[in-house]
Design a protein that fits this description.
Strand content: 15-25%
Protein name: Ribulose-phosphate 3-epimerase
Bound molecules: D-xylitol-5-phosphate, zinc ion
Pfam families: Ribul_P_3_epim (PF00834)
CATH class: Alpha Beta
Structural class: alpha/beta
EC number: 5.1.3.1
Cofactor: Mn(2+); Co(2+); Fe(2+); a divalent metal cation
Low-confidence stretches: none
Order of helices and strands: EHEHEHEHEEHEHEHH
Strand order of the largest sheet: 1-8-7-6-5-4-3-2
Shape: globular
Distance between the termini: 9 Å
Largest sheet: 8 strands, parallel
Catalytic activity: D-ribulose 5-phosphate = D-xylulose 5-phosphate
CATH topology: TIM Barrel
Oligomer: single chain
Number of helices: 8
Helix content: 25-40%
CATH superfamily: Aldolase class I
Length: about 220
């Protein structure tokens, strides 16, 4: 099986018990933690910042934390997440004035860097900076909220991103985010994704271990 990673989005967790929730999904078999940062400016919602990331580290979480920045500007806050314990920091190219500089800034802080593509954003942004990218994140919903419906044109975009990544020769992860469920995870894997964000599908399920197990069974088909 390919090196698939399941990344539960804590946006759908019970924030009043966040430490326990993150421990529970990791014990249930999740590979990393997807950490959605929204600023009520770039996207119409407001979530969590570096203090919460740091609090998870202090709680004893050692798994990779995959910080998805839906904020503008990016450069001011990205280093704070690196210091707070992030492993991956991804941002939306439209939210940065100087994309090359932001990618380098994230790497200079010791993190893996990535670009996030909204449903209507072209993959052309990758062309001149692919050597500075560790993760490509394809949004299969418009960013801002959990629990939205998967937008099927993301499948073609995943295939295109997979071609670009393979042609580049760089070890770049291809992540999909938005509306991922047990019944479509295999389809997105077939289209080229290797990292799967799932928020509501996991945190709103009765049993995290069963749900993650069923996702892995789909990926093994
Ligand atoms: C949306 C976020 C997603 C979201 C996914 O802006 O980036 O990570 O939490 O939630 P589901 O899996 O419920 O679509
Ligand atoms: Zn996300």
């Amino acid at each position: 099986m390919a090196n698939y990673k399941i990344a539960p989005s804590i946006l759908s967790a019970d924030f009043a018990r966040l430490g326990e929730e993150v421990t529970a999904v990791l014990e249930a078999g999740a590979d990393m933690v997807h950490f959605d940062v929204m600023d009520n400016h770039y996207v119409p919602n407001l979530t969590i910042g570096p203090l919460v990331c740091e609090a998870l580290r202090k709680h004893g979480i050692t798994a990779d934390i995959d910080v998805h920045l839906m904020v503008k500007p990016v450069d001011r806050i990205a280093p704070d997440f690196a210091k707070a314990g992030a492993n991956y920091i991804t941002f939306h190219p439209e939210a940065s004035e100087h994309i090359d500089r932001t990618l380098q800034l994230i790497r200079d802080e010791g993190c893996k860097s990535g670009l996030v593509f909204n449903p209507a954003t072209s993959l052309d942004y990758l062309k001149y900076v692919i050597d500075k990218v560790d993760m490509v994140l394809i949004m299969s919903v418009n960013p801002g909220f959990g629990g939205q419906k998967f937008i099927p044109t993301a499948l073609d975009k995943l295939r295109e991103a997979r071609r670009i990544i393979d042609a580049s020769g760089y070890p770049i992860r291809l992540e999909i985010d938005g509306g991922i469920k047990i019944d479509n995870i295999q389809q997105v894997a077939m289209a080229g994704a290797d990292t799967f964000v799932a928020g509501s599908a996991i945190f709103q399920s009765e049993n995290y271990k069963t749900t993650i197990g069923e996702m892995r069974a789909e990926l093994a088909k």
